What we know:
11 strands, globular, alpha/beta
Amino acid sequence: xxxxxxxxxxVVLLAAMLIAAGAFAIQxxxxxxAVGAGRSAAPQPQLTGCVPKGARxxxxxxxxxxxxALTFDGGPTxxxxxxxxxxxxxxxxHVTFFIRGQxxxxxxxxxxxxxxxxxxxxxxxxxxxxxxxxxxxSRTTKLIRDATGYRPCLFRAPYGxxxxxxxxxxxRQRMLTIGWDVDSWDSLYxxxxxxxxxxxxxxxxxxxxxxxxxxxxxxxxxxxxxxGPILRNLKRRHLQVVPVSKLLGLRQRTGG
Length: 256
């Protein structure tokens, strides 16, 4: 009788030990998974700029790779930029935003969001004059950098108006001037239709193209309506949308 009781006690003790060991193993595995998940979810290095190289003025990239660069000028704006970002996020593509300096105040969160979602920031002058002077350009670079920590190495001239003097001013500020070879016409006049914008882009785009669109002031409902179909068309044609710096093979700067 006493032996049976002792045997039962040992059985109970052994069972308790096994349960405790199992719980410890489960907890250890969960901890390991949590650590692994933490490592995989570690933030990527923050982009802080790009490094200019090559010709000081570019309207397209290398035609030998099926990449195109989609660019948006004139933002950020409350009316269009967030809606453009939502469509780019859905399509899982990254583009270049040419920023107009006078619109940064009040929209710094949008700039940070553009950068955080993998898009590139570039300079489009401060107040959008023809042939902007050095201060117009440097002022916008400083505002972008102050808002995001990112120093752009790409500039786009307002209205596409360029000359050698402008190229030199821009290059002295460690940037390249970027034009385009496909104009969507989405800023040519108010209320440009979705069909016009779509046909301009898909008929003009080919490997190496730099495509001009807008998220700035003006009427760009056609841009919002055409953007999704444009992205789907480019994907069907195996044309990958990338930022301008990637299209041109420029090195990115990163920080901690």
